[in-house]
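Fold this sequence, please.
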Amino acid sequence: MPISPVPGSGLLGEDRMLTTPGGRRLRTMVRGSGDDLVVLEAGLGMSGLYWGPVHELISAGSRVVAYERAGYGGSDADTDPRTLERLADDLGIVVDAVPHRRLVLIGHSWGGPIVRTAAARRLADGRTVSTTEPELIAEQVVELLG
């Protein structure tokens, strides 16, 4: 469902709100199509908008989602402690909200431990890629999804 205007609305495709089991809302930014899903996890203190150039490059061949963690941009704050496990819970909610056949999780900086924690929980095909170079990430994702 579309959300009301927040900073950067529409810059990374369609803005969608997800609701966690506890009732918090997480803002996601979705672009592209297909059975392959790439989810981008930003670094500490960064908005999902950080991924703009990468989001655009990857969306040409796959569905790509960036999102704003609790308390950032259009996402509700979380009153519980922001442990690594809790952050991975939110990432799992984002992944589960988008139908897919194959999954690629990409994390930058603090996003790396979050995606590794989420990936360790999943018994699905997936791969974690950590780098800060948008062109390199796009090349690696294209190679992974071949």
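The first helix runs from residue 52 to 58. The beta strands are 14-19, 25-31, 36-41, 63-67, 102-107, 126-129.
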